[in-house]
Amino acid sequence: MAMTTYESEQLASQLIALYQRLLMLKALPRTGWLQRGVPKAESVAEHSFGVASLALLVAAHDPSLDQARLLAIAVLHDQAEALLGDLPASARRLLGPELKHQAEARAMQELFGDLPQGSSLLTLWEEYASGGSREARLIKALDRVEMLMQALQYQQAGQNNLDEFWDNATKNLDEFPLVEQLVRLLVQQRTRLMLRRS
């Protein structure tokens, strides 16, 4: 059934209001980089674009993945940060995973709960948060790959205090051999870079 003009105007108003909140992600720098003094640190939106781009590239080589679901999860995965900000690892450690999850779930509910199709978006985000599907777990893995690629780029530009981002870089990637290979190559590139500098 087609929407009435009134319903269409209401939805358009909701979408504009929501997107104006999500625009915050373009201006919100990733806290981990800021804490280490990275000049011009990437924004959360730039990071999310990177994760979605990697998802598109990797999914092209795995027909068993639901590409639409994968890309939707990639776009949604950090949108709670429009309300919460980008919590640094130190805050996440002190809050614990359960409290962090509860805060993110409340933020996502506030952002998407009133939309006509909001429940499906909330379900996708919850799938990501719980690692409840292969697509969700791949986005979690690509989230790490994107971070490592960015760390390597910063290190190539002269940033020297990013070692902790590489701790356990290859851990728990065996579900996705291509992603595991990407990380191994990034680690090798970083090792060569560090050897040239020593």
Any descriptors?
198 residues; mainly alpha; 10 helices; globular
CA-based gyration radius: 18 Å
**Biggest pleated-sheet summary:** none
Total helix count? 10
The tally of beta strands, per DSSP, is: 0
Q: What structural category arises from helix and sheet content?
A: mainly alpha
The whole-number mean of residue pLDDT values reads: 95
Q: What is the N-to-C order of secondary-structure elements (H for helix, E for strand)?
A: HHHHHHHHHH
What is the CA-CA span between the terminal residues?
67 Å
Name the helicity range.
Answer: 55-70%
Topology of helices and strands:
Blueprint: H1 5-22, H2 24-27, H3 31-35, H4 44-59, H5 67-76, H6 81-84, H7 89-112, H8 118-130, H9 134-156, H10 177-197
Helix pairs in contact: 4-5, 4-9, 5-8, 5-9, 7-8, 8-9, 9-10
Task: Describe the structure concisely.
With 198 residues, this protein is an all-alpha fold.
Describe the protein in words.
By secondary structure, the protein is mainly alpha-helical. 70% of the residues lie in helices and 0% in strands. It contains 10 helices and no strands. Helix 5 crosses helix 9. The longest helix has 24 residues. The radius of gyration is 18 Å and the shape is globular. The mean pLDDT is 95.
